[in-house]
Amino acid sequence: MRNRHPERLLLSALMSAATLAGAAPAIAEETPLPLDPQFSVILDGVYYDDSIDGSGDAMLGETAGIFAAHGHEEEDDHAVHEHGLEQGFNLRHTEAVVTGGIDALFDARLNIAISDEGDITVEEAYVASTGLPAGLRVKAGKFYSGIGYHNEKHPHSWDFVDQNIAYRTLLGIHGLADTGLQLTWLPAWDHYTLFGIEAFQGDDNERLGTEAEHGDDLPERDKAPRLWTAFAKWSPDLGYDHALQLGASAAFFRSHQEMHDHGEPEEHALDGDARLYGIDAVYKYDSGQAYGQGDWRVSGEYLWVKKDLEVAHHASTPGVIGEARDFREDGLYVQATYGIAPRWELGLRYDAVGFTNEKRGPRAAVDADFEESQRWTAAATWHLSETSRIRAQVAQVEGAFGDHREDYTQFYLQYQISLGAHGAHSF
Questions:
Q1: What is the predicted pLDDT for the residue at 222?
Q2: What is the DSSP letter of 387?
Q3: pLDDT band at residue 199, thresholds of 50, 70 and 90?
Q4: pLDDT grade, residue 73 (50/70/90)?
Q5: C-alpha dihedral (127, 131, 136, 137), degrees to nearest 10
Q6: Which CATH class is domain 40-420?
Q7: H/E element holding 406?
């Protein structure tokens, strides 16, 4: 039986910090500050084509492995602002952002996504404390998790047109975002160090912590919060021109369900939990030249996922109910950009999944090993200004899909325009 008690201590810590944030007005002036909201709208258009009649981008969401048999990417609630690309012209979701200070104690952010068909989805809506002592900060609402390096970045701040396939396969095309609480601590140490813990509802996940549809034979899901994360980031002092950040993350999904009703074996349902571990690194060099010329950015992450499940339902072989199923898969990306001239940069990325890609059970008949998929991507970006850019990108995919492999080439041409206030991006 799974131990469900340690997370109560973490929840108590989060709630205590939230209470402290609410009590903080005692240290603030009674006079309210005037609201000063900042508004921005970000437009994102892409022309896409590939060497297999335009189906290559969708195929990247179904690479062979432990997630392919029950894909959520095309059917879940996130589909209304899916970043997947069709052959030809695409208007990806338009981001509308409102940020601002509420008073001396809290900031707020609202980020909504509007699809080309007019569907509206809330990507982020949260308040964050600004007045807690001892380097503490509380965030509450819906937001992107602080795990890893790439996860918190919105598409308009990506260095490439599309999501890397490590995130897309293991976390979903949108990364990990949910509704909950975050507590971070930035101690007053000589080197930048940040610790964070998060408790999420566990309802908005694309790949891990999912709830199976039509799961009448599955047990009731654990009570929320069902998703817990922890992360740490550290940055040494390398002087003014150089910057390095190293990070480690973990996520535990207390309730993960799957319904397999296509292909072999016959219809069956799985229930259990899942966990994710990751490490990340990013290095930046500021040459001091105009408009990014000579600047370097190099980043990478490695993610490892494990699902510990049991058979909760089997249409043809009820005798296997209760048997364990152990799923493991990993993924990584490494990418670099270099400013070749003022406002011009070149990028190179390698991303892959499935170096570890296996299913294990008590009987050899249920064991399975899946092949890896990988891709090389090159991009050239022209930053016309601080608020607009044009990007050309080409990628070569060597992928495993079901029982076959497919090699193909992808082509992209993207424009992005930001209207209104546009704050600085994170490190």
A1: 83
A2: T
A3: very high
A4: very low
A5: 10
A6: mainly beta
A7: strand 404-420
User: Residue 294 to residues 174, 289, 337, 391: CA-CA distances in angstroms?
Assistant: 31, 7, 10, 18
Pairing assessment for the beta strands 324-341 and 120-129 based on DSSP bridges: unpaired
What's the pLDDT tens digit per position in 17-55? Answer: 555 555 554 444 454 555 678 999 999 999 999 999 999
8 — phi, psi (to 5°)? -65, -35
Question: Is the pLDDT assigned to residue 216 strictly greater than 90?
Answer: no
pLDDT of 297 strictly over 70: yes
Name which residue leads in pLDDT, 193 or 204. Answer: 193
The domain locations on the chain are 40-420
Confidence at residue 104, expressed as pLDDT on a 0 to 100 scale = 83
What's the maximum distance between 2 C-alpha atoms anywhere in the chain? 70
**Whole-number CA gyration radius for the chain:** 22
Interatomic CA distance for residues 309 and 217, integer angstroms: 15
- Whether the bond into 265 is cis, omega within 30 of 0: yes
| Number of Cα atoms under 13 Å in the Cβ half of residue 378 | 4
Measured CA to CA, the distance from residue 111 to residue 79 in angstroms comes to 17
3-class SS string, the chain: CCCCCHHHHHHHHHHHHHHHHHHHHHHCCCCCCCCCCEEEEEEEEEEEEECCCCCHHHHHHHCCCCCHHHCCCCCCHHHHHCCCCCCEEEECCEEEEEEEECCCCEEEEEEEEECCCCCEEEEEEEEEECCCCCCEEEEEEEEECCCCCCCCCCHHHCCCCCCCHHHHHHCCCCCCEEEEEEEEECCCCCCEEEEEEEEECCCCCCCCCCCCCCCCCCCCCCCCCCEEEEEEEEECCCCCCEEEEEEEEEEEEEEEEEEECCCCCCCEEEEEEEEEEEEEEEEEECCCCHHHCCCEEEEEEEEEEEEEEEEEEECCCHHHCCCEEEEEEEEEEEEEEEEEECCEEEEEEEEEEEEEEEEECCCHHHCEECCCEEEEEEEEEEEEECCEEEEEEEEEEEEEECCEEEEEEEEEEEEEEEEECCCCCCC
